[in-house]
């Protein structure tokens, strides 16, 4: 596949279900080099009661999660949008992936909430990566709006001729243009 940029991006949320997958879908359609991940211990989705979430292991195929929820209560999970979300996800990749087990290196990590931004994987070398957080509430509408914001940011980052030296200016421009505060740091793999 030919990408529009050599910039490699990982989009990360807690379960690799909603926010990271919406942005992954959006960026992949625009032909960016993108992957998505979660950082939680398990993949958690709302259940029919607040105290009874649906919990799955990372690596459980989206199709299996879809079938499990459809068997439990197809009408409920259709109405709350989970089956639609899982259908989208299974067309993008096989299963939710946990960031901490990924060995691939990226130029930019974009997290969707500060709690995820604060979680790092083990440092194994001194290769720098830019970590940027854009807080996105975990619901369908905000995930879609967040995907547009992430696309805007990635477009700005991809347009730089020297990411390391221009990233502060890009982050400032992004915040100013979108009236959205972001966090940025450099981490080492």
TrEMBL record:
Location within or outside the cell: Nucleus
Entry-linked Pfam families: Ssu72
Its EC number(s): 3.1.3.16
Keywords from the UniProt entry: Hydrolase, mRNA processing, Nucleus, Protein phosphatase
GO MF terms held by the record: RNA polymerase II CTD heptapeptide repeat phosphatase activity
Reactions performed catalytically: O-phospho-L-seryl-[protein] + H2O = L-seryl-[protein] + phosphate; O-phospho-L-threonyl-[protein] + H2O = L-threonyl-[protein] + phosphate
Keyword Isomerase: no
GO cellular component: a single term: nucleus
One biological process term in Gene Ontology: mRNA 3'-end processing
Role noted for this protein: Protein phosphatase that catalyzes the dephosphorylation of the C-terminal domain of RNA polymerase II. Plays a role in RNA processing and termination.
PANTHER family: RNA POLYMERASE II SUBUNIT A C-TERMINAL DOMAIN PHOSPHATASE
Family membership: Belongs to the SSU72 phosphatase family.
Name of this chain's protein: RNA polymerase II subunit A C-terminal domain phosphatase SSU72
Lineage summary: Eukaryota, Metazoa, Ecdysozoa, Arthropoda, Hexapoda
């Amino acid at each position: 596949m030919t990408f529009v940029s050599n910039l490699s991006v990982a989009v990360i949320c807690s379960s690799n279900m909603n926010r990271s997958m919406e942005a992954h879908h959006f960026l992949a359609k625009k032909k960016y080099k993108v992957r998505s991940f979660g950082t939680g211990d398990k993949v958690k989705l709302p259940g029919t009661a607040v105290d009874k979430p649906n919990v799955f292991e990372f690596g459980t195929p989206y199709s299996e999660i879809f079938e499990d929820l459809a068997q439990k209560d197809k009408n409920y999970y259709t109405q709350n949008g989970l089956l639609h979300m899982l259908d989208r996800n299974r067309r993008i990749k096989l299963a939710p992936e946990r960031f901490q087990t990924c060995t691939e290196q990226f130029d930019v990590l974009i997290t969707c909430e500060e709690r995820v931004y604060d979680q790092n994987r083990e440092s194994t070398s001194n290769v720098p990566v830019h970590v940027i957080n854009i807080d996105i509430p975990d619901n369908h509408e905000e995930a879609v709006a967040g995907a547009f914001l992430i696309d805007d940011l990635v477009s700005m980052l991809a347009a730089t001729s020297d990411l390391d030296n221009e990233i502060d200016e890009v982050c400032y421009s992004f915040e100013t243009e979108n009236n959205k505060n972001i966090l940025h740091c450099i981490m080492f793999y």
